Amino acid sequence: MRHRIVRDGVVAGILGATAVAVWFLGVDLIYAHAFATPEALGRGVLRLFGPPGTEGAMVFVVVYTIFHYAAFIAAGLLVSVIVHWAQTSPTVLAGAMMLFVAFEIGFYGLSSALSESPFLGALGWAQVATGNLIAALVMGTYMWRTHPELKSELDYALAGKE
């Protein structure tokens, strides 16, 4: 069982991270600057550890890509634990849905606030929100298709039968 939880979480995380990466590559190509988004975000991640040095653009892209995939795999593992937990306690899905909505609202608020910063201002909150929505849909679709019992568990959870 643990192996399946980990596998589902890692696969969901990789799918979500790749979907967002492809989305931002497309956005960056429209603005004629490939990899501008991961470069800017990588700069921000490295800035947490001190002032920027002489790193090149590819270092920022690689650092952010590693961070990006690690974060999405962690999120995928959380989703996988919830999905597997719902097999024995379907009502956990109702709580998870409320938590997801609250997280999304907070995420969009944070993205909007960060869009006002001079460092990430070029990264529009609407683009971030769209990427986040794409990732949620891709990860959710993967879990939905690999766990057909989710429909009945979700129906049970939303009916408030416990």
Overview of the molecule:
This protein has 162 residues and is an all-alpha fold. It has one domain (2-159). 77% of the residues lie in helices and 0% in strands. The longest helix is centred in the N-terminal third of the chain and has 29 residues, at 2-30. It is elongated, with a radius of gyration of 18 Å. The relative contact order is 0.16. The model has no long low-confidence stretch (mean pLDDT 87).
Query: Residue ranges: pLDDT <50 for 5 or more in a row?
Result: none
Termini Cα gap: 25 Å
Record field, number of beta strands = 0
User: Could you say how many structural domains there are in total?
Assistant: 1
Summarize the helices and strands and which ones pair or pack.
Blueprint: H1 2-30, H2 36-47, H3 57-85, H4 92-114, H5 125-146, H6 150-159
Short descriptors:
162 residues; mainly alpha
Short description:
The protein has 162 residues and is an all-alpha fold. The chain has helices at 2-30, 36-47, 57-85, 92-114, 125-146, 150-159.
